[in-house]
Specification:
By secondary structure, the protein is α+β, with helices and mostly antiparallel strands. It is about 30% helix and about 25% strand. It has 6 helices and 14 strands. The longest helix has 17 residues.
């Protein structure tokens, strides 16, 4: 992760105790869960389990505390497992997908970032940009899809898929399309344009 993201986790993250997933291994194997998928969930738990981060700028029910649970067969193929319990009860949940993507599962699967690291990077970058921006403009609904990003470049460490961050000369655009795609609700798309940023505001580590 970038120094910006590591600093964000160290300054704003809290690590809570979590039960040992290993005690469920035999029972999960008896239920037909492949050992490789259990290993993948346990590796996620070992690194991220129990980490509580500040709320995301857009999602009302992002994981309150990161943590894996029993892997399940995914309707898109392969296996996935929960990324953590949401802050509130919603019609969608956050999962780690078959290829390690972090996304939300509603009426359909919407992979937000190519990995959990991308999600954490996006939280850190949004937190930094909000602090240093001269203005923050909120764009909603179908206007998000027609947003002009000419002259902007994707922020690579965010590893954006359905969601993404784009960096311009003096502004940063955060696109939040997960609910719009996952719940088949275009009106729920949102973009935050952080304007008036200098070099430090655009990068921040």
């Amino acid at each position: 992760m970038t120094r910006r993201a590591r600093t964000f986790v160290e300054a704003h993250g809290i690590r809570a105790a979590r039960p040992d997933l290993g005690r469920h291994r035999d029972a999960w194997i008896e239920c037909g869960v492949p050992a490789t998928e259990i290993d993948r969930a346990m590796a996620f738990e070992d690194r991220w389990g129990g980490l509580a981060l500040p709320p995301a700028p857009f999602y009302e029910s992002d994981p309150h505390v990161l943590g894996a649970d029993v892997p399940e067969a995914s309707p898109v193929g392969g296996w996935w497992f929960p990324a953590g319990d949401g802050r509130f009860s919603m019609a969608y949940g956050f999962m780690i997908g078959p290829d390690g993507e972090f996304g939300n599962d509603g009426y359909r699967w919407a992979p937000l970032h190519a990995g959990i690291e991308g999600w954490v990077e996006s939280l850190a970058l949004a937190h930094h940009a909000r602090r240093w921006a001269g203005t923050v403009t909120r764009i909603t609904g179908e206007a998000v899809e027609s947003l002009d990003l000419e002259g902007y470049e994707p922020v690579p460490e965010v590893r954006g898929m359905t969601d993404a961050c784009w960096r311009g000369e003096d502004s940063l655009v955060a696109l939040y399309r997960g609910v719009a795609v996952g719940m088949n609700a275009p009106a729920c798309g949102e973009a935050h344009v952080h304007g008036g940023l200098d070099e430090w505001g655009l990068h921040g580590g």
